[in-house]
Design brief:
alpha/beta, Rossmann fold, 2 domains, nine-stranded mixed beta sheet, two-stranded antiparallel sheet, 13 strands, about 25% strand, binds flavin-adenine dinucleotide
């Protein structure tokens, strides 16, 4: 079974600060880490390989420094890593990101039987990328997976959806986005540390290798534009009212009327 794990390098959230004047995230000096759910996806892929054989490939699109995330994935036990990096990819929204990842998946040999993604990231947090890759490749997809069992040419998966656990059978190739309960992330594999530094196991592809033109990638290939960026207004302080239950109800209704949440007439009909 050939498994590709999509990995995103994200800023380490506790060390993120906003530039309040420019309304941007200050990235300088911020340590980058693998998105936490992508560790879970990687561990799940390693578990599947241990059970079924095959290979695990880590795939990322990002600036050159995201190579560090792939090297870490190799150290964890991935067989191969693919870095998709090109100045043309800068400014990509989720659609343009998914397009590049989907193109890479479509030209990989051997082709992936299973593509694993995190359900969402800790920085942009849209949860778009996995489903958009699956749509572009016309693959079945299941989001929020908490268990995977291989059964002949299919997967039997459980997903948590609105507090309900669904069990679904999915044909291969398929894309799954994973939740934290799927696997317990282990430690670095000592035997793989050396591979993490080998050049042979890391492939670099840019727009040329992927046969993508500048109108379909990066800012130009993005369907969304950031119009404004500002922190949400600070939360108003709450008001604590005291008094008898009758008094509290009267004051609450008066307050709701002042805020035009209920009409003065509303009380008459009841
Ligand atoms: C107009 C616009 C411009 C933007 N410009 C930039 C920019 O210049 N620089 C920048 O860093 N971001 C930029 N972004 C944000 C960027 O689009 C997102 O970071 C990216 O698409 C991933 O979205 P997400 O973090 O919400 O992923 P989600 O959909 O929440 O991620 C789910 C899973 O998909 C996979 N995944 C997500 N991203 C990648 C990836 N890159 N490689 C491999 N797997 C991945 C992972 O498995 C991840 O767990 C921009 C966004 C917009 C709307």
């Amino acid at each position: 079974m050939n498994i590709v794990v999509c990995i995103k390098q994200v800023p380490d959230v506790p060390s993120i600060h906003m530039d309040r004047e420019r309304m941007t995230v200050i990235r300088e000096g911020v340590e980058s880490v693998i998105n936490p759910l992508d560790y879970v996806a990687l561990q799940a892929a390693l578990n599947l390989r241990a059970q079924e054989g095959g290979s695990v490939t880590a795939l990322t699109m990002g600036p050159p420094q995201s190579e560090a995330a792939l090297r870490e994935a190799l150290a964890f036990g991935a067989d191969k890593a693919v870095l998709l990096s090109d100045p043309l990819f800068a400014g990509a929204d989720t659609l343009a990101t998914s397009h590049v990842l989907a193109r890479a998946l479509s030209i990989m040999t051997p082709q992936a039987d299973v593509v694993l993604c995190g359900m969402q990231t800790i920085d942009s947090d849209t949860g778009h990328v996995g489903p958009q890759i699956a749509e572009e490749l016309d693959m079945p997809q299941v989001c929020g997976v908490t268990e995977i069992h291989v059964e002949k040419e299919t997967l039997l998966v459980k997903r948590l959806n609105d507090g309900i656990i669904d069990t679904l059978r999915v044909m291969l190739p398929a894309l799954l986005t994973v939740r934290s309960g799927l696997a317990v992330v282990g430690n670095l594999a000592l035997g793989s540390l050396e591979r993490a530094f080998s050049e042979a196991d890391l492939v670099r592809w840019g727009s040329k290798e992927l046969a993508l033109n500048e109108d379909e990638v990066g800012l130009r290939g993005s369907a969304t534009k950031v119009w404004a960026l500002r922190p949400p207004p600070p939360r108003q302080n709450g008001e604590i009212v005291t008094g008898s239950p009758q008094e509290l109800v009267r004051r609450l209704i008066r307050k709701l009327e002042t805020l035009s949440i209920v009409d003065e007439d509303d009380g008459d009909s009841g």
